[in-house]
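Handout, section B. The chain below has 93 residues.
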Amino acid sequence: MNYAQIVNGIVVNVIVADADFVATQTDKTYVEYTGSVGIGFTYDGTNFIPPQPYPSWTLDSNNIWQPPTPRPPVPPNTNWNEDTQTWQISVRP
């Protein structure tokens, strides 16, 4: 099973362990998870929320970070520029 170790509401470690092992860890808080969780995620008691990618992005009701303007559908190789608050085409060498 997959477990996230939580300290002060933040994921500090992720492990694969047997439930019996986790039950013996009385000095640590572990939460079982499915899906994608990583170090630095916030745990609100129910959901794991990834770190905020940019200061201008806001969390929606589904706990997904949203940019101030939606990502354009094409081209797919765009990156958010926080300084200009716009999507920019990535140039690949």
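Note. Helices lie at 19-23. Compare this with the example in section A.
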